Amino acid sequence: MPGVFLKDALVTLKESGVRITPQRHAILEYLITSHSHPTADEIYKALEEDFPNMSVATVYNNLRVFQNSGLVKELTYGDASSRFDFVTHDHYHIICDDCGKIVDFYHPGLEEVEHLAAHVTGFQVNSHRLEVYGTCPDCAAAKQTQAK
Amino acid sequence: MPGVFLKDALVTLKESGVRITPQRHAILEYLITSHSHPTADEIYKALEEDFPNMSVATVYNNLRVFQNSGLVKELTYGDASSRFDFVTHDHYHIICDDCGKIVDFYHPGLEEVEHLAAHVTGFQVNSHRLEVYGTCPDCAAAKQTQAK
DNA sequence: TTACTTCTTTATAATCATTATAATTAGTTT
DNA sequence: AAACTAATTATAATGATTATAAAGAAGTAA
Q: Which PANTHER family match (chains A, B) (predicted)?
């Protein structure tokens, strides 16, 4: 049902007064249908064929537009570039320490952690970020094979 | 007891065959005693007085050395530069959305989240990262004051 | 101590993601 | 269609981080 996500997203954008340009349509569609967490550059390269004149700035600009509309989240890690994630349900990410693969998983929200943090620090809590790190099945298998 | 942390850290380094240079000593000491989460550049500037000839590369190099020894963790956020945190107990961070202040808080580890993630995704889990975001008391007060 | 080896630091340049700018183009409204 | 506004493009600028090569300091073994 990726078509549903895309249509909903376009409606959301229109309602907040954002114009649907061909570039925006393509970026959103790529984010949804690629089922990945691409970098800005990956998006840029993937759309190069259809939009030979598109500028990298357009990708960045529109990713920010989407973030402001709540459609997209930016994922930032150490050295590498940011990755962008089309927001559907609330989910968390598990990331392979070896190959960098990012996989979604679902878990009920961590409200009690937020409450504790609020209580201890006096902050008004808005949100949280959680990521789990480990070794994906593929990399685990590869290690197994090459083990002496 | 910051002296304890520093001495332990130096022992750890020595045991893993890392030389204790004056620069390394100073960087570690600053990380521990500043009670902050400084960027590489902040460390560089803070030590400028004592080490007028120190290169930024030295700061980065040694922060990496410390990370490899498990003494320091890198905290990466969106646009800004990485921040570095001397590892003492296991703790989490709460970050002010308005002023960027980072405050530590303690919470029992989230093993059950790790277990669920491992189960659902088939990963071998190594670690996780959790951050809470919100508004710190200072910024909340400031907003209150300027409210109409 | 001396010579030799190995790390570490320094200074500098290079890289690379991201953002800013200004000019052009496309959409929308009247 | 005219006028206004927003979006895109091309390009340059920024800024954090890393790579490189030369110089310096420490460790070891004779």
A: PEROXIDE-RESPONSIVE REPRESSOR PERR, ZINC UPTAKE REGULATION PROTEIN
Q: For residue A13, give both structure tokens.
A: 């954008």
Max mean pLDDT range (A102-116, A121-135, B40-54): B40-54
How many interface pairs between A and B have CB atoms less than 8 angstroms apart?
A: 122
CB-nearest to B107 from A77, A97, A113 is A113
Going by C-beta distance under 8 Å and a sequence separation of 6 or more, which residues neighbour residue B136?
A121, A122, A123, B96, B98, B99, B101, B103
CATH tag, B1-88: 1.10.10.10
Is domain B89-148 given the CATH code 1.10.3720.10 in the classification?
no
Q: Where are the domains of chain A?
A: 1-88, 89-148
Run of H or E residues at A127: strand A124-135
Binding-site residues on chain B for chain A (CB distance < 8 A):
74, 76-78, 82, 92, 94, 96-97, 103, 105-107, 110, 113-114, 116-118, 120-137, 140
Give the tens place of pLDDT for each residue, B125-145: 988 888 899 999 999 888 777
A127 interaction partners in chain B (CB closer than 8 Å): 132-134
Give the dihedral of Cα atoms B130, A64, B102, B12; nearest 10 deg: 60
pLDDT digits (tens, 9 = 90+) for A42-94: 999 999 989 999 999 999 999 999 988 888 888 887 667 888 988 876 788 89
